[in-house]
Amino acid sequence: MNEKINLKEIRRKAYTSYHQDGLIDILAACVILSIAAWTILDMVWLLGWMSFVIGASIYAAAKRALTIPRIGFVKFPQQRTKGMLTALVALGVLSSVLGLVAFMQVEGGTTPTWLLLAIEYYMPVIGVSVAALFSAAGYTFRTKRMYAYALLALVIFVPGHFLNFPLYYYLLLLGTLILLLGLAQLIRFIRKYPCSATDTTGDSSNEQ
Amino acid sequence: MNNRADDDETTTIPKIDRLIHEPARLTIIAHLYVVESADFLFLQRQTGLTWGNLSSHISKLEAAGYIEVTKEFVDKKPHTALQLTNKGRSAFKQYRQNMKQVFEDLPK
């Protein structure tokens, strides 16, 4: 038995069980749906980010209330999370710089070719960006279903280039599908792991 | 006779840390090795050990200095965090190397 201890498998199992509650899926779905809602109201960027911040706080509270009493608390090594945060910050800075450059060029009377291309193919661009975010989440949390969501985003957004529906239709479709899958995951998790009758101290005096 | 058997075993399989070698403790250490820290409930779910069994093995590992047990209150509830110490981490690495060596040295 001893020579067969598979640390990679143990690590994967630890990550999978901690993230099998579907909360991260519900958070992602809520962010996508709120972006869809604010797209309809034309306030997308400001309130899209606000919904992410509010959603993240609710996610942390839900994790404390639903997940930790059922399967306990674990702290994972931070290398991948730090890498992911660094990549997100770099992406944010790059987007801001590109936006600024594009703004200055448009103000100067010339629209750069890459901007024209990005505007023309905005649906595939959004699809690839959303897929990249889900893939990064899948890598960080070692959760395979995030890669499935990445594929789903591509399947929904790329054909959107050839159809003439408004952007929020696709966002609503993607958000609703992920929300339903996340809720199904959460229900399955709650059924599989009823609230533990014991506390988390491990003291023998607390044994039930 | 027991002593003789022990002698034979130690010459054949040297340096194997018996504290880690016990299957339940090996499972506990392996699970703590891949995370930064975890609580009792998480370890119980992951290892499938009973509460009392887990508690008893944790005490032995803590006494050997392989595991650090931190008790604190989170949201007014008692919470125990378990973490592999540097000594425990090194001991587990050494154990893996030694076990690998043992199996490599066996005749085919």
What can you tell me about this protein's structure?
The complex is a heterodimer of chains A (208) and B (108). Chain A is mainly α and 208 residues long. Chain A has one domain. Chain A is elongated, with a radius of gyration of 21 Å. With 108 residues, chain B is an alpha+beta fold. Chain B has a single domain, classed as Arc Repressor Mutant, subunit A (Orthogonal Bundle), CATH 1.10.10.10. Chain B is built from six helices and three strands, in the order αααβααββα. Chain B has a three-stranded antiparallel beta sheet with strand order 1-3-2. The interface between A and B is medium-sized, with 31 and 37 residues.
Summarize the structure.
With 208 residues, chain A is mainly alpha-helical.
Q: Proportion of β residues of chain A?
A: under 5%
What is the alpha-carbon Rg of chain A in Å?
Answer: 21 Å
Shape type of chain A: elongated
Biggest sheet overview of chain B:
3 strands, antiparallel
**Helix count from the secondary structure assignment of chain A:** 8
The low-confidence parts of chain A are 204-208
Helix content of chain B: 55-70%
Number of domains of chain B: 1
Task: Tell me the distance between the termini of chain B.
Answer: 29 Å
Radius of gyration of chain B: 16 Å
Please state the overall shape of chain B, judged from the principal axes of the Cα atoms.
elongated
CATH architecture of chain B: Orthogonal Bundle
Structural class of chain B: alpha+beta
What assembly state would you assign to the polypeptide chains in this entry? heterodimer
Low-confidence stretches of chain B: 1-7
**How many separate helices of chain B?**
6
